[in-house]
Amino acid sequence: MPTSTTKRDDILDSALTLFAERGFDATTIPMIANDAKVGAGTIYRYFANKEVLVNTLFQHYVTLFKEALEKDYPEGTGIREQFHHLFQGMIRFTNEHDHALYFIKTHTSAYFLDAESREQFGHLLMILENFFEAGKQQGQIRELPSKALIAIIFGGFLQLYQLIRVGELEASAELLAGVEESCWDAVRHHA
Amino acid sequence: MPTSTTKRDDILDSALTLFAERGFDATTIPMIANDAKVGAGTIYRYFANKEVLVNTLFQHYVTLFKEALEKDYPEGTGIREQFHHLFQGMIRFTNEHDHALYFIKTHTSAYFLDAESREQFGHLLMILENFFEAGKQQGQIRELPSKALIAIIFGGFLQLYQLIRVGELEASAELLAGVEESCWDAVRHHA
DNA sequence: TTTATAGGAATGAATATTCATTCCGTTTTT
DNA sequence: AAAAACGGAATGAATATTCATTCCTATAAA
After folding, report:
1. For the purposes of burial, counting CB atoms within 10 Å of the CB of B147, is it exposed (0-12), middle (13-18) or buried (19 or more)?
2. What span, in angstroms and rounded, lies between the C-alpha atoms of B32 and B41?
């Protein structure tokens, strides 16, 4: 076992960035080692193989994201406020963990995800489905399948964040507020 | 030069499917050859290498998609009708060319795209930007950067179509109409 | 009409390259 | 000094690409 946990974290950080930018298959172990400033062999001291590494990363960030959404969730309040909480959670999470959401999204249906990763991701979807189902019952959310509503919000938001990451847009408070409003209008029930 | 154009098309068809399903890096030339029922070497009679193949494919479908959006565009009409045209164009294109839009989307910022591919994609964005810019000037479209509006629509739509392709949702007329309405509400100016 | 021949197209085994993983000598920690 | 952690060259498997050979098809000679 390693003395400090620094190298393991360095490896995970580099892997996250590279997997998000180039994808799993286009990212080589030597690339990760180089970026993390460790020897290629060192990676195998911490992770049995490349798939274990990517699954560890995936589960780690899915869990963090779930926590970001659930933390301080305003249970008894209005649906718009709950939506705001979830949306802010996405933004906060994205700011704190630069490439994480994009990594999750682009690897969500990858062939190398193990059962545990898929299950964790299922939990995440459940949180969002519950929100939309409740909203539809109250007549406050558009009558579309929850899966579709989630896809619209997530797809749109992540596509947008890609532009921000690439530098084509700046993540100003004004822009983000506008995007939240746009997403809300996409899912809410209109009179 | 080949006697018929069949093999080249077979190769392109197989490559499209496999690139869309597995991604560029996880798709091997022998896989493509096998799926297209040609020898691996045959692929190199038509395409100098794997990157030329993927760029050819990318440019081909970006061009087709541009045409689908521009064909019969209702120039002098209302903005909602124009939006409908563009949205229907997306749907029609997706139905006609099963994996094409998803392939385009997932490979849009890939490291192996050449200058020509990037430029073609730029043209495509321009069509949509022009639409949104005009709409904002008329006060009919939400005041957000056009790039952001495009990201929201495209990201959402494509994420949704992924669910359909995977079989989690059915592409009924009702669903599609609802999604169009949702997307429209996302981008339109609200009083 | 049949047979020969040329030349492009197709093939897939052989080669070159890339990459995940292992191994072992060196360095660091205890 | 012993044990653990490291680095990075070495290994072997997988993959892109090449190329010598075979297969077609079309034209021409008989």
Report:
1. middle
2. 11
Alpha-carbon A76 to chain mean position? 26
pLDDT tens string A166-189: 899 999 999 999 999 999 999 999
pTM to 2 decimal places: 0.89
CA distances for A147 relative to A143, A162, B2, B52, B148, angstroms: 11, 22, 47, 37, 22
Q: What residues of chain B lie within 8 A of the CB of A20, using their CB? A: none
- As a whole number of angstroms, the distance between CA A73 and CA B98 comes to 40
- Block residue for tokens 């073609």: B120
What per-residue confidence (pLDDT) applies to B1?
34
Nearest CB to A23; choose among B23, B151, B157: B23
Q: Is the pLDDT of residue A162 over 90?
A: no
Q: Is the CB of B39 under 7 A from strand C?
A: yes
Number of neighbours of residue A102 by Cβ within 10 angstroms: 20
| Residue B27 one-letter amino acid | T
Given B23, B162, B185, which is nearest A185 (Cβ)? B185
Average pLDDT over residues A52-66: 96
Q: With a cut of 60, say whether residue A2 has pLDDT above it.
A: no
B113: left (phi over 0), alpha (psi -120 to 50) or beta: beta
Check: CB of residue B12 under 8 Å from CB of residue B30: no
Taking the CA of residue A9 and the C1' sugar atom of nucleotide C28, their distance in angstroms comes to 19
Q: Is B165 helix (H, G, I), strand (E, B) or coil?
A: helix
Per-residue pLDDT band for B5 (boundaries 50, 70, 90) equals low
Q: Is the CB of A3 under 7 A from strand C?
A: yes
Residues of B with Cβ-Cβ distance to A148 under 8 angstroms: 160, 163, 169, 175, 178-179
Q: Do B175 and A143 touch (CB under 8 A)?
A: no
Closest CA to B86 of B143, B148, B149: B149
Q: Determine phi and psi for B190, rounding to 5 degrees.
A: -105, 140
Integer Cα distance of A75 and B144 in angstroms? 31
Chain B 49-108 residues in 7 Å CB range of strand D: 49-51
